[in-house]
Design a protein that fits this description.
The chain is an alpha/beta fold. The protein has helices at residues 11-19, 35-39, 55-63, 90-103, 114-122; strands at 25-29, 48-50, 76-79, 110-112, 126-130, 139-142. It is built from 5 helices and 6 strands, in the order αβαβαβαβαββ. The protein starts with 10 loop residues before the first helix and ends in a 9-residue tail after the last strand.
Length: 151
């Protein structure tokens, strides 16, 4: 255990989050997502796992240490429902609420078409597979910056 670090974050995940740079993307995937095969194409090159957690719990733990990019509209995204891209499912609403709480304001996630999401995952820094079993529990987070301390 580490003081001040969410205990849900394992060493592999913490390493990846620390290694990411401004603008790098992280995928949080559900259990049905082809995470293993797509993760091989990422910058990290291997799948990270937080399998005992829902997507919302993974995002909450990640956002306890990872700033989101405030300079772009696609700071966070959700996989769109096939043939119904405007629908926001309960799992997606839960993650939106986690993001809103972390950011202190409501900025809606962008929708990303299913196959475009797969391509985005391949180009991401890393993929974390959660234990989320609800459909469309797949999300993208874009890393922002931590400003210098003002003295």
């Amino acid at each position: 255990m580490l003081k001040g670090i969410d205990p849900r974050l394992n060493a592999d995940v913490l390493y990846a989050l620390r290694d990411m740079g401004h603008g790098d993307t992280l995928i949080v995937a559900d259990t049905n997502f082809p995470a293993g095969s797509l993760a091989r194409d990422t910058a990290l090159g291997e799948l990270l796992r937080m399998e005992n957690l829902t997507a919302g719990e993974v995002v909450e733990a990640v956002l306890s240490v990872l700033p989101l990019d405030t300079f772009v509209d696609d700071f966070a995204g959700r996989m769109e429902v096939v043939d119904d891209p405007e629908t926001v499912l309960p799992v997606q609403a839960e993650v939106q609420a986690v993001i809103d709480a972390a950011e202190g304001l409501h900025r809606p996630m962008v929708g990303i078409e299913r196959f475009a999401f797969y391509e985005l995952a391949k180009r991401s820094y890393a993929v974390i597979q959660s234990g989320e079993r609800r459909f469309y529990g797949c999300f993208m987070l874009r890393k922002g910056v931590i400003p210098p301390e003002v003295k």
